[in-house]
Amino acid sequence: MKLKLEGVSELVLQVKSMNRAIDFWSNKLGFPIVEQWGYENGHFSESNKEDIRATWLYIGGHTRLGLWLPRNFSPLDKIEKEKTISNWKGLYDQGGVHIHFALHIKAENFDSAIKVLNNASIDHKVIEEVNTNMQKEKRLYFKDTEDNVVEFYTLDMREDYKERIKV
C-alpha cells in the first residue's frame, strides 16, 4: 500500500433538519455531541452558537460524524472553489449530498503521503495548526476525480475527545 492510513477520521453528511438529525444520531443512537458550529462571513465559526449549522458527534475509534446543513456560497466563493485546491484562500466543501471525508493518518506518515500526491501530480493543500488541546495537527486536502474533497488528518479523535466523552 502506498499510503499508510489509520482509517476514517471524519465523515460529513448533509442534513435537511439539524434538530431532526441530532435527535436521530445523538438522542436515539447515543453518539455524543462534541462540537457545534455556527456560520459567519462565509465560513463555519465556533463563536456563533445561536444558529447551529454543523454538529460533530464522536462515533468511536478515530472517527467523528459531521451533520451539516446546506451551504449557500456567495458568487465570490463559487469562483474561489473553482480554483485548484492549493490556491484556495480558505477551505470549501463541495456542498450537495456529499461534503467531504477525512482519513486518519499518523503524523510520522504525513510527509510520505505528500510525496505520493506529488508523484501522482495531485494538487493539494496542507494546513498545520495547534488545536484547543494544544496538540499540533496536520491536514492534507485534495480532490478526487469526482471533485469530492478528501482530507488526511493527523488528529486522533479518540484522544481529542477523551475528556469530553470520558472514554
Task: Describe the 3D structure.
With 167 residues, the protein is α+β, with helices and mostly antiparallel strands. Helix content is 22%, strand content 37%. It contains 5 helices and 9 strands. The protein has a 9-stranded mixed sheet. The mean pLDDT is 84.
Write a concise synopsis of the structure shown.
The chain is of the alpha+beta class and 167 residues long. Helix content is 22%, strand content 37%.
* Main sheet overview: 9 strands, mixed
Can you tell me the residue ranges where pLDDT is under 50 for at least 5 consecutive residues? none
Principal-axes geometry comes out as: globular
On the 0 to 100 scale, the average pLDDT is 84
Q: What is the helical fraction, as a range of percent?
A: 10-25%
Indicate the proportion of strand residues: 35-45%
Major β-sheet strand ordering:
3-2-4-5-1-6-9-8-7
Question: Which terms summarize this structure?
Answer:
167 residues; alpha+beta; 9-stranded mixed β-sheet; 9 strands
Q: What is the strand and helix layout of this fold?
A:
Elements: E1 5-14, H1 18-28, E2 33-40, E3 43-45, E4 54-60, E5 63-68, H2 75-81, E6 98-105, H3 110-119, E7 124-130, E8 136-143, E9 149-153, H4 157-160, H5 162-165
Parallel strand pairs: 1-5, 6-9
Antiparallel strand pairs: 1-6, 2-3, 2-4, 4-5, 7-8, 8-9
